[in-house]
Amino acid sequence: MTVNKQLLLQKRPIGLPEKDTWKLVETATPTPKDGEILVQCEYISLDPAMRGWLNDAKSYIAPVQINEVMRAGGVGKVITSNNPHFNIGDHVYGNPGVQQYTVTDGKGWHKVDPTLAPLPTYTGALGMPGMTAYFGILEVGELKEGDTVLVSGAAGAVGSIVGQIAKIKNCTVIGIAGGADKCKYLVDTLGFDGAIDYKNDNIASKLKEYFPKGIDVYFDNVGGEILDLALTRLAMRARIVICGAISQYNNKTAIKGPSNYLALLVNRASMKGMVVFDHAKDYQKAAMQMGQWMAQGKLKSKEDVYEGIENFYETFLRLFSGEKLGKLVLKVSED
Question: Are strands 172-177 and 194-197 parallel, antiparallel or unpaired?
């Protein structure tokens, strides 16, 4: 019997999840029925949205239920197929959850080509983070050539792609990240025009320095105080994209909302939330464009890969400690 290691949700956390929020179990590898495929999961995507999926609250997607496999996107290989649309050996991307094997009817799964990009890239720039960045900045943010753009969480999976797309579109881009190394990475490697170190810089004075005429587009991944400060530097008819609020996800008290929201009125600005699933029909178009930019050397992808499903919790915490660079990925297959 081939063993399938799975991570099951055991309780709903308050604040930062503790290790016993999940339990690692071993079960028999499932057998696909007619029309189904068996996928050996190789790489699992770890994303800040995972924290929200643990809460029993109304959201854009149902919460993970107690004793269910922890939700996660991932990429793997088809090892058994009873579905004419998939062949044994195909590499596929979908939502397997945090486990080593999964059975699916193929809906919501698509083939990927490991000869065009490494498999972890399909969890990052060519996966949901890349799609989030693409549609978030271009459609929700209504990016225009020459805009001044501020990106928070700029060294992360989504923010790093957002900033590069804005540079491709000939915009001035400033990123906010934690620590000198990440800020150097934004400027020297990704081509940002400047960076603000939220751990050491005076954010308010840096925003005034970098945006003397105001921010045209703010792509927000962190919420909290940084969102509030960005509101004080808006240009006329600025657009704010609310993608995430990682600074607030583990609060044990009420979420801190923006007190400077009247800046939206004064500047006739807009603040709009975005969920990548709303753009699912156009994923292929976006992926083709992203792949082209990567082939041209205009778009760089960085995956921070850790190994072992047993190390899920320690790796998950890196989402909130900042001890990562780029897309956080966990290799769950065993060679």
Answer: parallel
pTM, rounded to two decimals: 0.91
pLDDT, tens only, 43-74: 999 999 999 999 998 888 899 999 999 999 99
- Name the DSSP letter for residue 123: G
269: which 2 tokens? 């600005």
Q: Is 179 exposed, middle or buried (0-12, 13-18, 19+ CB in 10 A)?
A: middle
- Distances 117 to 24, 120, 126, 234, 245 between C-alpha atoms, Å: 31, 8, 9, 38, 30
How far is Cα 140 from Cα 142, in angstroms, rounded to an integer?
Answer: 5
Unique residue bearing structure tokens 């055991």: 10
The number of C-alpha atoms within 13 Å of 217 and in the hemisphere containing its C-beta is: 28
* Cα–Cα distance for residue pair 109/273, rounded to 1 Å: 26
- 119, 188 in Cβ contact below 8 A? no
Angle at 185 between CA 182 and CA 186, to 5 degrees: 90
Q: How far is residue 326's CA from residue 303's CA, in Å, rounded to a whole number?
A: 5
| Secondary structure letter of residue 310 according to DSSP | G
Q: What is the per-residue pLDDT for 211? A: 98
